[in-house]
Design a protein that fits this description.
By secondary structure, this protein is of the alpha/beta class. The protein contains 14 helices and twelve strands. The strands form two sheets. It has a six-stranded parallel sheet, sandwiched between helices. Strands 9-8-7-10-11-12 form a six-stranded parallel sheet, sandwiched between helices. It is globular, with a radius of gyration of 21 Å. The two termini are about 40 Å apart.
Amino acid sequence: MHSKILFILHIPPPVNGAAMVGQFIKQSKVINTQFDADYINLTTSFSLDRIGKSDIRKYLTVLQIQVKILKALINRNYDLCYMSFTAKGAGFYKDLFVVAILKLFRKNIIYHFHNKGIAKSSKSRLNNLLYRIAFRNTRTILLSPHLYNDVAGYVDKKDVYFCANGIPETESEKNPTRTIMQPCKLLFLSNMMEEKGVLVLLEACKLLKDKGLDFECHFVGAWSDISEEMFTATVQEYNIQENIFAYGKKLNGDKKAFLQQADIFILPTNNDCFPLVLLEAMEYGLPVISTPEGGIPDIVVNGENGFLVPQRDVKALVDKLSILMQEPDLRTKMGAAGRKRYEEFFTLGKFEQNMAEILEDAIAHKNCNRQNSWYSK
């Protein structure tokens, strides 16, 4: 008989990294063949603008989730309960009720973190106590060894697994080639949020125009704390209307077209763990410019498949963009290196296999330190 696992995770909408990974797990043939799996959606905010906000519908959804989990635990004896756990804030307190239910039933628990902030949040005496209770006798999956320090105060390394995210291949060409054309096309593809570096990139575009470089910068993503009005006002203030294009949210084939036509991918993020969009850019053979945030140094090897620049450092971003914009051969070389790195470490198949091995090990209660199983420096 297959081991029984209850997966408590996020599923779109909204579309974000945690929800996409949750969907990959739920649809995984590898996981669903190897395990007898049940799934409960932990999502309570079904649009980006509702995240972090409270209303009666959200409280009712939370209650419904708790009832579903109770029923599942009463009806089946699971060998493992997997939970996508929110690291801090209101989501953390909401998830604690689920943790309490799982601990009440004395379940074998493994957490999967797609965000961070525990080390900072734990400075509160109350939060420190809650984290100690939540992590006791559990195991944890992190996206990268770079993120271990965030949980080090509560989880021994022997109880931590590292599993990089992976994405399905959508590009038909194994070695995509790009036509070198002017103007150089820059692409930002993420939710339109300040923490993703939207305003930093706009300022960089102003400086690139001042330097006389020929380029277009295309912004693709759902409007969030950066509204369309705020974005447009900033573009007008910088006098870069001829260089900047914004499209709002695009999915599937529409998103693919932007990746196919771009020359350079930029995500100057201030708050991330392991952005799936960087893997998408690498799959399409794009050189990447990002920041050394979270697990990004495992994705972008500085100087190999792109550049890492300090957060909020507009000058550094302009310097690296200028290099890539003026050296098409370097863009091609870095893009090919990124495609190779994607194929080696970040396919959906590799993620599924790594996740299945982790779940099997957690069920068997074996100590396992897999720090170097999926990436190289």
